Amino acid sequence: MEMTTPTNKQPMPGPEHQDPQVVQEESISPWKEAFWQLKKNKLAIVGLIIIVFFILVAIFAPILTSNSYQTMNATDRLQGPSAQYWFGTDDLGRDIFTRIVYGARISLMVGFFAVTGALIFGSLLGIVAGYFGRWIDMLISRIFDIMLAFPSILLAIAIVAILGPSLQNALIAIAIINIPIFGRLVRSKVISIREEEYIMAAKAQGMKSGRILFHHVLPNSLAPIIVQATLGFGTAILEAAALGFLGLGAQPPTAEWGRMLSDSRQYIQSAPWTVLFPGFSIMLVVLGFNMIGDGLRDALDPKLKN
Amino acid sequence: MPKPLLEVKGLKKFFPVTGGVFSRKIGEVKAVNDVSFEVYEREVLGIVGESGCGKSTTGKALLRLIEPTEGEVIFDGVDITKLDDEEMRKKRRDMQIIFQDPYASLNPRHKVEKILGEPLLIHGIGDKEERQKKVRDILEIVGLPGEHANRYPHQFSGGQRQRIGIARALIVNPKLIVCDEPVSALDVSIQSQILNLMEDLQEQFGLTYVFIAHDLSVVRHISHRIGVMYLGKMVELTGNEELYNNPLHPYTKSLLSAVPNPDPDVKKERMILEGDVPSPSNPPSGCAFHTRCPDCMDICKQVRPEFQEYSDNHFVACHLYSEENN
């Protein structure tokens, strides 16, 4: 297993090339090591490229296209892909390429905020439940159980129905339904880390529980949270699209991929490009996040090392 | 006679066994059941016993890493079981522990520098530079190069990690170190290195050890006095030589007869115990050892033998040696 020794994993940056001894003396942090593991994973790199591509598209949307995503050209309804309209036009004569490009902004934003919100609230609840245990754990865990008992999309629909359909409310709903997923993960990780001997060692040295929690328990629980956050990104985008499809997410004329699918579904036979491109975009982004999430899981799993 | 640094009186630790819908207590495991002993300054007290006899629990309970159910732990004149959290936190500087598994006891995400510097930081010892210097000094003392402070635990071997574990216990200048089977997770060739290191450090810094192990030869090598535990109780406690030359308790005798002899031609009569260790959740009546004792008498099944001094500094809990029977 020569490949797994720290020396060989070293990417040999710049001037250290001549003297491998020096490189060996350098310390290798577990995070760096995980990154090298990730770089070796071809699928994860493909996923990363897809994600970076969509992020760039979202950022540079106004540069990529001179059309507006809401301008309607009644004369150019349901046109197939051409030099003028790369991905064709929809039933209102809007440029699908432009709508896809602007839709990337919405999807990535939904993914980011929903995952961040779920991550913060879920982690806090999970840490409290896991570390303090007893009745607090009982209370929080049972709430999680109740939330998980509903199919997540059903719960999201219920929440949006209460709050009223809009992109912002869809985002809140997606964040809420993802809270128990993060909460449970963090809770179980905290419970297992809490029993580790180095936590007892920290206590034996006289550390306060706050320090133990944030310097010892949390950094060691991060790996699965990062993986879940990456995978959750994909799910959140999918859920946003589903809510959009049902008319509960972004409202017209906002360019949202799920909404575009549902608006065009009656033309699926006569003008397939109207559903093909938004569907393909959703698939590609979700696939990208899943591939990088899987790669991260492998890279961060200590059992696969050595 | 030097004064005792640590006095343990009637230490008990019962773990509740819960069951049913509402996690009611349906029983308890008597992991440590009324253990008393003293440890003198600059002394190494060995505690031996087979797995599950409560020796590790005793070690952790006397540092309050596991909260004792009952009993007093008087360290340096203060009963630490009565201290509040903050007072106990400060006291921990004087009483440290070395753990059994060097792979589990070091935080994998911290550099050695942080692992060793953190105890100094939380007890407010020195500024940043002094702490860095101390970390390097202590690494040299335990036989590792000072520049290894920049490494992570996974870059070390088991023996090296245990040296870091020792350095961590040592860096705050404690008076007492509980060594919880510090060599049993290591290769035999490494064991002797670590043992010799610990012995040297003990002499050099005038440390007091409570040395927990299941390996009799290891304990014999390092201890001044040895206590033998069986099923949560101390059954015999005496000086190193005395225990090996003149074991009193039948359990100690059988343990000693199990120590392998390197000479294959020596035929010795082994005393082999029958049966298994009884469950600590339901210990036998009277003497806990009576179910397996070759010299079991009627009284053993009913009356629990007192832990008393049989001859000078030789304590034993066995009816064979109580006054009524002599």
TrEMBL record, chain A:
Residues annotated as transmembrane: 43-64, 106-132, 144-164, 170-186, 225-250, 270-293
Specify residue ranges for compositional bias: Polar residues: 1-10
Listed A to Z, the keywords are: Cell membrane, Membrane, Transmembrane, Transmembrane helix, Transport
Q: Where in the cell is it found?
A: Cell membrane
- Locate the region Disordered: 1-23
What is the protein's given name? Peptide ABC transporter permease
Give the originating organism: Salipaludibacillus keqinensis
* GO biological process entries: transmembrane transport
Automatic annotation (TrEMBL), chain B:
Q: PROSITE patterns annotated for this entry?
A: ABC_TRANSPORTER_1 (PS00211), ABC_TRANSPORTER_2 (PS50893)
Q: Which CDD domains is this protein grouped with?
A: ABC_NikE_OppD_transporters
* The keyword Isomerase is annotated on this UniProt entry: no
GO MF, one example: ATP binding
For this UniProt record, give its keywords in alphabetical order, as a comma-separated list.
ATP-binding, Nucleotide-binding, Transport
The source's superkingdom equals Bacteria
Q: Where is the ABC transporter domain?
A: 6-256
Which InterPro entries does its entry note? Answer: AAA+_ATPase, ABC_transp_ATP-bind, ABC_transporter-like_ATP-bd, ABC_transporter-like_CS, Oligopep_ABC_C, P-loop_NTPase
GO-annotated biological processes:
peptide transport; transmembrane transport
- Family per record: Belongs to the ABC transporter superfamily.
Q: Spell out the protein name for this chain.
A: Dipeptide/oligopeptide/nickel ABC transporter ATP-binding protein
The protein's matches in Gene3D superfamilies, at most eight in alphabetical order, are given as: P-loop containing nucleotide triphosphate hydrolases (3.40.50.300)
